[in-house]
TrEMBL record:
<dbReference type="InterPro" id="IPR007197">
    <property type="entry name" value="rSAM"/>
</dbReference>
<dbReference type="InterPro" id="IPR024177">
    <property type="entry name" value="Biotin_synthase"/>
</dbReference>
<keyword id="KW-0001">2Fe-2S</keyword>
<keyword id="KW-0411">Iron-sulfur</keyword>
<keyword id="KW-0496">Mitochondrion</keyword>
<protein>
    <recommendedName>
        <fullName>biotin synthase</fullName>
        <ecNumber>2.8.1.6</ecNumber>
    </recommendedName>
</protein>
<keyword id="KW-0408">Iron</keyword>
<comment type="similarity">
    <text>Belongs to the radical SAM superfamily. Biotin synthase family.</text>
</comment>
<dbReference type="Pfam" id="PF06968">
    <property type="entry name" value="BATS"/>
</dbReference>
<dbReference type="InterPro" id="IPR013785">
    <property type="entry name" value="Aldolase_TIM"/>
</dbReference>
<dbReference type="InterPro" id="IPR006638">
    <property type="entry name" value="Elp3/MiaA/NifB-like_rSAM"/>
</dbReference>
<dbReference type="Pfam" id="PF04055">
    <property type="entry name" value="Radical_SAM"/>
</dbReference>
<keyword id="KW-0093">Biotin biosynthesis</keyword>
<keyword id="KW-0949">S-adenosyl-L-methionine</keyword>
<keyword id="KW-0479">Metal-binding</keyword>
<dbReference type="InterPro" id="IPR010722">
    <property type="entry name" value="BATS_dom"/>
</dbReference>
<comment type="pathway">
    <text>Cofactor biosynthesis; biotin biosynthesis; biotin from 7,8-diaminononanoate: step 2/2.</text>
</comment>
Length: 472
């Protein structure tokens, strides 16, 4: 596919006879496709995810002073995209409505040499970082137009200042005394074909981990576990299955829907994590009453291929799109301690905070190294990185529930309390968290008592309207 000259697929080959999978394949190659193909394909097939991605790509290219790369048929869309951007270098200056398709694919202009700007002094950089933080903390509604530079400026603030400002945001958008208690059950252990380097459930590392694959748990067993979780105070029950995706798993999907219905009937929120799902599977799960779907991005787009090679970042985003389009809450976060840098943590935050809607839940996992996996010998991530990530996430996604997930078992109580102060407001609690140890209900109840916390009620996300003081 050519980027220069005329946009061939736009003028010749987009019609309803194209199978939808063609467009899905295109959407996975965003760097090599004209956004207008996606926009047009989304119009033909009614796929909102593609349209959103195409718009993002158009905006990014305009922001980078590149040609918009769209055809005349999309003038209305570009008008909207242009009006949101302040710099439209190399874009036509005539009114968009008077331009033809070919006007939109002009030869690339030779960039005029720009005088080199004087490098910023440390003092200027700090002043700018403070301004970014001030503006972020003063926001009264979530923003989706974050740049990496802005998120990095927030992430790298002096740590206590960052935690303090995150606490201020937390108190404006949430009741700071409330923490959601979730229990996560593995409903199908091991035997997964993926190669996630941190995971004990991959068949590729089975020799080293010794983990035996099991069949899917019965509906009765799962509902009994949910009942126990509820009795102990959990208000959300999450179910995880070690699968790449749900293709060809009709019977399992039927059983899982029964589990979802059963847990909802107990008055609990219910979440599942089943690998990649398509639009139809997401719709069926929504109909069964699913509250949320977990599918983590894990890390930054750049670092991701060092951890997983069997599915792409864009495939993960595609599943999140299906979940969102079905009206299910999105739970998507990351794992710290994989060997990533601060820039990768910023990259992860940027990926989720610039989605068209922020995930309702952002789990922050600290890697629990499991012997036999490629990351089994890794050092544990420093707590300061966990706290930074929690606090920065709270500031850039003020309405999202931030969940301290894997790795909490080894965190001293004071560290957990710092996370709660800086914006974390959910934990996993119970006997186990998938294949790793978890803080128990009694232990958490004692800790809540000591720090003046209380369990969040089901289906209650925010308690305090922005701008009001906390009731506590
Ligand atoms: S897809 Fe899930 S279960 Fe499979 S290896 Fe990756 S993390 Fe483990």
């Amino acid at each position: 596919m050519s980027h220069g000259g005329v946009c061939r697929p736009c003028i010749s080959s987009i019609d309803k006879s194209k199978p939808e999978s063609t467009w899905r394949d295109f959407s996975l190659r965003l760097d090599t496709i004209h956004p207008c193909h996606l926009i047009k394909a989304s119009a033909v097939h009614g796929r909102r995810t593609m349209r959103r991605r195409a718009l993002q790509l158009v905006s990014t290219r305009i922001g980078r002073s590149q040609r918009p790369l769209a055809c005349g048929a999309q003038l209305g869309t570009l008008t909207a995209a242009r009006s949101r951007m302040s710099t439209v270098a190399a874009a036509p200056t005539a009114p968009l409505s008077t331009l033809s398709a070919e006007t939109f694919h002009p030869p690339a202009p030779t960039p005029a040499p720009t005088p080199a700007a004087a490098p910023e002094t440390d003092g200027e950089q700090q002043r700018r970082a403070k301004q970014i933080l001030r503006r972020a903390v003063a926001a009264t509604a979530p923003r989706h137009d974050w740049t990496r530079e802005e998120i990095a400026a927030i992430y790298h603030q002096p740590l206590l200042e960052l935690a303090y400002q995150a606490a201020a945001v937390h108190r404006r958008f949430h009741d700071p005394a409330e923490v959601q208690l979730c229990t996560l059950m593995n409903i199908k252990t091991g035997g997964c074909t993926e190669d996630c380097s941190y995971c004990a459930q991959s068949t590729r590392y089975q020799k080293g981990t010794g983990l035996q694959a099991k069949r899917v748990e019965s509906v009765e067993t799962v509902l009994e576990a949910a009942r126990i979780a509820k009795e102990n105070g959990s208000t959300r029950f999450c179910m995880g299955a070690a699968w790449r995706d749900m293709r060809g798993r009709k019977t399992s999907l039927r059983n899982i829907k029964e589990m979802v219905q059963g847990v909802r009937a107990m008055g609990m929120e219910v979440c599942v994590t089943l690998g990649m799902i398509d639009a139809e599977q997401a719709r069926e799960l929504k109909e069964a009453g699913l509250t949320a779907y977990n599918h983590n991005l894990d890390t930054s787009r750049e670092f991701y291929p060092s951890i997983i090679t069997t599915r792409t970042y864009d495939e993960r985003l595609e599943t999140l799109g299906h979940v969102r389009d079905a009206g299910i809450h999105v739970c998507s976060g990351g794992i710290l301690g994989l060997g990533e840098s601060d820039a990768d943590r910023v990259g992860l935050l940027h990926s989720v905070a610039t989605l068209p809607s922020h995930p309702e839940s952002f789990p922050v996992n600290a890697l629990v190294p499991i012997k036999g996996t490629p990351l089994g010998e890794r050092e544990r991530v420093e707590f300061t990185s966990v706290l930074r990530t929690v606090a920065a996430a709270r500031i850039v996604m003020p309405e999202t529930i931030i969940r301290i997930a894997a790795g909490r078992k080894t965190m001293p109580e004071e560290q957990q309390a710092l996370c709660f102060m800086a914006g974390a407001n959910a934990v996993f609690t119970g006997d186990k968290m998938l294949t790793t140890e978890c803080n128990g209900w009694d232990e958490d109840a004692d800790m809540f008592g000591r720090w003046g916390l209380r369990p969040m009620r089901s289906f209650r996300k925010t308690a305090v309207a922005p701008g009001e003081d906390s009731p506590n």
